[in-house]
Specification:
This protein has 215 residues and is mainly beta. Helix content is 12%, strand content 42%. A hairpin with a 2-residue loop joins strand 1 and strand 2.
């Protein structure tokens, strides 16, 4: 899903082509599924709010969000906000010769489905790396890894494997058959499911504060 949004970056002292400006409003495009963003243009203002200059960029030069950057923060907050407004969807990642997993990373909602599709004549035995996971995440990963091989394998071109629902977190999915050939990990980020707008859950009666009686 790719959607545009605005970001207001205020600065103390700066200039645009030697023209002093107070702050800049930058418009971004966000690709939530592939964890990337692109600048769509900027508008420069002086201290009174008057527009000094405006730039537009429709080339969509996508860049992956750098970890712990403001761009990653914008992407995470925006995608979390729109998650509650869309229905669950399916994501397909293909295992291809030379390209390994394609795409190499994907960001999904906890209620989404992730399908792995084989694009190679050789078989794939899929696993989830349990290193650096929390106890809850590790338990879910081990439950998948302990399934019989035929339930987590791809044996023919075009065959699909549905991955299990996983707790929110970041997982490294691998093919055990091709790890010795430098077959890279598939990085899967599972995001929490945001509540739908206007669909707030009400606290159980036993935990709600008592309502004062009307006179």
């Amino acid at each position: 899903m790719r959607i545009d949004a605005d970001s207001d970056d205020s600065v103390q002292t700066a200039s645009y082509k030697r023209i002093p400006y107070s702050h800049v409003l930058t418009r971004y495009g966000f690709d939530c599924g592939r964890r990337r963003l692109a600048s769509r243009g900027s508008t420069y203002y002086d201290s009174t709010g008057a527009v000094l200059n405006r730039t537009e960029d429709d080339s969509l030069r996508w860049q992956l969000a750098l970890p712990e950057s403001r761009g990653e923060e914008f992407l995470r907050e925006f995608c979390l906000a729109i998650d509650g407004a869309r229905p669950p969807r399916s994501w397909i990642v293909a295992a291809k010769p030379g390209d390994n997993f394609s795409p190499k990373s994907v960001s999904i909602r906890a209620t989404d489905s992730l399908l792995l599709s084989s694009g190679m004549p050789s078989s794939h035995t899929i696993g989830i790396d349990t290193a650096r996971l929390s106890p809850v995440q590790s338990k879910a990963a081990r439950a998948f890894n302990e399934l019989p091989l035929f339930l987590r394998s791809l044996a023919a071109i075009g065959e699909e494997l549905k991955m299990p629902s996983l707790p929110p977190g970041t997982y490294r999915v691998y093919c055990a058959n091709h790890m010795i050939h430098s077959f890279e990990y598939l990085l899967v980020e599972v995001r929490p499911t945001a509540p739908r707008p206007g669909n707030r859950q009400q606290a159980p009666a036993s935990t709600r504060p008592p309502t004062a009686a009307r006179p």
